[in-house]
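To close the section, here is one more complete example, presented without commentary so you can practise reading it yourself. The ligand is nicotinamide-adenine-dinucleotide.
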Amino acid sequence: MGKKVTVVGAGFYGSTTAQRLAEYDIFDTVVLTDIVEGKPEGLALDLNQSRPIEGFETKVVGQTTGPNGEGYEVIEGSDVVVVTAGLPRKPGMSRMDLLGVNAKIVRQVAENVAKYAPNAVVIVVSNPLDEMTALAQLATGFPKNRVLGQAGMLDTARFTHFVAEALAVPVGSVKTLTLGSHGDTMVPVPSKCTVNGKPLAELLPADKIEELVVRTRNGGAEVVALLKTGSAYYAPSAAAARMARAVAEDSGAVLPVCAWVDGEYGISGVYLGVEAAIGANGVNRVVETDLTESELAGLKEAAEAVRAKQADVATL
Ligand SMILES: NC(=O)c1ccc[n+]([C@@H]2O[C@H](COP(=O)([O-])OP(=O)(O)OC[C@H]3O[C@@H](n4cnc5c(N)ncnc54)[C@H](O)[C@@H]3O)[C@@H](O)[C@H]2O)c1
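Output:
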């Protein structure tokens, strides 16, 4: 049977994710939902009318959902659900400022996903990311491997872009890695960064690398400050769509994601940004990579910072 993917939340992040998923042309159906009456239906109609031009057969279905889960039947049978519902940041806000309001939204969405798509893999993108991923797992009651979050792919892509720009080389020649949390304790891993296979440290002075690391850590805020009305969505949707594709194709692709860590790196019991092999069941396994002492210390610090915040999500 053909694959079905649902995107909950038809804002900037959700609508661009739905577009990318539809244009892959690997799904039977892309469902797009939102609580704003008519918005997902209108976007779906518009996306479907792009099919003859872009040349894809995937059908996009838009559905407004109600406060008591009305309309959620449409997500039945979804292999993957991407949760983008929730407010984005405005200039000056931190991701944690969104915690209270987005927790209510994500909990309600997760409960309906559990009811109507009990076998789906859930990819969370709503912020604050690490906490919303932990909350979605609690509220769905799904096995931890079937709930993951998107952050690392985006942070890594930003880092790669900045390195490519600084060295004036193609992005395809640059490999970077970021682990940790989607926020202040993001852990860039310079020892894993290369350009055409050459260590980044041989190509850029340490202070320049540090400058790019800082810009990467603040990559989201930089876009928010320019847009003034919301946050980034082109690069974020590219990342979430790739993750959903890895699930749908059961590809086993190793991607930096927010995954449940259970002993890897000597860290346990927390959702954290790590590399993981992604397939039909979500996270097949967390993939450990060799880290320097200071990188490992940074990852452990990030784990403790998000652990403290994730402990509170049960009460939200
Ligand atoms: N993880 C990341 O890397 C990353 C990157 C960028 C943005 N984000 C986050 O993604 C989220 C969405 O961002 P955006 O730019 O699309 O915002 P947006 O305001 O454009 O869209 C959010 C949409 O969610 C909808 N919504 C609200 N409550 C809902 C509910 N209960 N059910 C269904 N839909 C609901 C809104 O009506 C709106 O259309 C934000 O929380 C933002 O912070 C995460």
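Once you have examined the tokens, check your reading against these statements. The radius of gyration is 19 Å. The chain has a mean pLDDT of 96.
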